[in-house]
Amino acid sequence: MDAVGALQHWGGAVHHPSNWAVLSDDQPEPAGPLVPDFIIGGAPKCGTTSLHQVLHQHPKLWVAENEVYFFDADDPIAHGDFLKVEDGALHWRNPAAPEARAWYADRLSGAPDGALIGEDTTTYLISEVAPHRIREIARQAKVIFMLRDPVKRAYSQYWHLLRSGRTTLSFEDAMSAERSIILGSTYAPALRRYYEALGPDRVHVLLFEEFKADLMASVRAVTDFLGVPPLPGPPAQTWHNKTKYPKRLDSLRRANWVGGPLVRYRYARHFGGAAPRQARLAHWAYRKWYAYVANHILTEDRPPDAMSQRTQDYLCQHLSARNAGLSDLLGKDLARLWPGFTQ
Question: Residues near 320 by Cβ (< 8 Å), separated by ≥ 6?
Fold first, then answer.
């Protein structure tokens, strides 16, 4: 089903909410573009790609390919890649614009008849605008989050930034320079925003450690939450997007000095349309650089350097403070699963 067909399927013209006006929960859903039934909203580096892969194998569930980045497309904190400065002027993607809604509908239009439609964007958790926009646009959608030991997640985020050419810094220096390292592990206030915007009945939280220990039980909890039958059997594919590391960190840092200037073009083709020739060429060059790094430098299963004990002690203390009350919020003793966690 293409974008036009998706619009017709859902009742006609594009619905353009003025200033993200909130509709009351007892109003019927207005006719408009296709919206998701469920969203995998984060956190990054917590196994969400594997959850995406598993749910997509369910006969009653369908998940759009790759991360979508719709509800936070103009959020410079959650995802600044889509804000551009050209000739001194700021350009951004407005999720409320009719063309943006049509683009989103097109990304969701491949689902088979009768399947619940989902999308996966791990930056929604840290975005302060995403929960309210989800409430206003996808008014019945349920949201799923997967959380991981926040210290391990932060270190994994650092390696993700290194592998994608976004930094050449040490982990200790990157914690200050790259806000996603700390914000991505700040779960409690982000979850409270979603509980407040959507209500607790529309939010489901998984823990990566439990998902890894008993995948089928975790998936059963998700299918119960979504109101579909359990997965018929063990999924054919489970762990996806396995992390690879360089043998020597200096090798990756040197490569990043070369590829770093191309990183801002990483998403130049994400929204389709006619990108400027320079952006198209830079995007092509970035993909070539990324493939070279993946094939020739990222060859190891473990990082070359372990986090220092002093840095780990700091993160246990600081991320516990940032997540004050999280165990009570989730009704679980998280210190049992996350060593060093005190909240």
Answer: 340, 341, 342, 343
- Which single residue is written with the structure tokens 């206030």? 189
CB of 153 closer than 8 Å to CB of 184: yes
Phi, psi of 146 (to 5 degrees): -120, 125
pLDDT in tens, 117-135: 999 999 999 999 999 999 9
Tokens of 299: 């060859």
Of 214, 161, 222, nearest to 337 by C-alpha is 214
pLDDT at 241: 65
Contacts (Cβ under 8 Å, ≥6 apart) of 173: none
pLDDT of 235: 78
Average the pLDDT over 144-150 and give the result.
98
What are the residue ranges of helices labelled H in 110-169? 130-137, 150-163
Report which DSSP code applies to 199: -
Decide if pLDDT at 12 tops 80.
Answer: no
Judged by DSSP in three states, 255 sits in: helix
